[in-house]
Design goal:
Chain lengths: 236, 236
């Protein structure tokens, strides 16, 4: 039997031990949904960077840079953070440097893990299949918003945990995981209505960037599982 | 309209601004349930201290000291942390010094608040009435377990928030508060079954100290609202 745990925000991550576990990083609106989209449409590598200084450094070296802060594209970047930008025409065969407010920070925290995986509804089924085949303990890391808990990442964590536990191969004694499952059970019958309560939905709406919410809540659009290899993400 | 927010554990508290708010500290199993019991049964003052060194110092000065770590009474203390100990015969008119693993740490964090209140199911109704009369913004601080999220405090936060919001006088844009309400809605039909998932329930069971769970989930046993006045708790 493998265990499953959930860190409900990056500020809670240091209370968990990622060593020898598969860490699944989640930032549904929008970083991990964007990364899944990039690989689905043919990107070869995604280099996640936490700071804008690093991102700028890559830009100066000629890389294509995707960067946002507080939802909005930063001035020197080639693209902001909507999954709509990353069509096959744009990303096929490409290497992209990527920096966001929350999601890429979360990826940077996960050192020591057996494997760091990028999770979203878009690759939910493939991710579950992979984790069941890995036969290892799982730690879900919700990116949240600047260290705070957020509903959309928690609902995904609950969905993932519920599926893994339903297999009979995973169990938990983790209050956060049970709480996430309760929240997923509340959300599942009507995800758009549920997300009316999510602060991030309203942040995106204010910026006119909320046209991707339905897309980011689509199950199983891709079989790609982005995974950290050194400092880069590649697709499994 | 007043706002309501929820810090789901002490590790998340520094992301909120307690200034000019009523902070409600919650540690259902068992610190805030114990404190409500003490005042219900006539205690005059409770001095919450975070460290065992402080508690020992008070003991040397002749105070009655209640202290536990990881659920168990510490050697020099007069009492451990079960509400059953604090009968009127024991506490009426008394001053008690109190130190616990999580709850008293949480009380110590809440400086800057307009008022720091101790909340539990035992004083739920009185607390709601007081907060509605105060007409101030509310921040609920769940003590959790060593900085981690816990189900029982979150379920109480949801219950409190739901009641306050149902009055029409409170609203929220806080994801944690909505998540707590979802968890309370899941818990409410069968609290004992819900708490089967709570890690703290199993910690207490292991120590033979789980005979108080039903008591700690009793609504409205008392009208006392413990509140911080300087370094002491007194009953409103």
């Amino acid at each position: 039997m493998n265990t499953i745990e959930t860190a409900l925000s990056t500020a809670l991550f240091d209370q968990y031990t990622p060593d020898n576990k598969a860490v699944v990083v989640v930032d549904i609106l929008r970083a991990t949904s964007v990364i899944c989209t990039m690989f689905h449409n043919g990107a070869q590598r995604v280099i996640p960077v936490a700071s804008l200084d690093e991102a700028r450094h890559y830009k100066e070296q000629g890389y294509t840079v995707v960067a946002e802060r507080n939802g909005q594209k930063v001035d020197f970047a080639d693209f902001g953070n909507s999954p709509r930008y990353f069509t096959p025409e744009v990303v096929n065969g490409q290497t992209l440097v990527y920096s966001t407010t929350n999601g890429t920070q979360a990826i940077g925290l996960s050192g020591g893990a057996k494997q760091v995986l990028v999770g979203a509804f878009l690759n939910h089924g493939a991710l579950c299949k992979h984790l069941l085949a890995m036969q290892t303990d799982v730690l879900i890391l919700c990116a949240g918003w600047k260290g705070k808990f957020c509903l959309e990442d928690t609902m995904f964590a609950g969905s993932l945990a519920k599926t893994l536990m339903a297999s009979g191969q995973f169990s938990t004694t983790c209050d956060s995981t049970y709480g996430a499952i309760d929240i997923w059970n509340t959300a599942q019958p009507n995800i758009p209505a549920f997300l009316e309560h999510a602060a991030q939905r309203h942040r995106l709406k204010k910026l006119g960037l909320d046209d991707v919410i339905e897309y980011c809540c689509t199950f199983d659009l891709t079989n790609k599982i982005p995974a950290l290899a050194g400092n880069e993400l590649v697709a499994l």
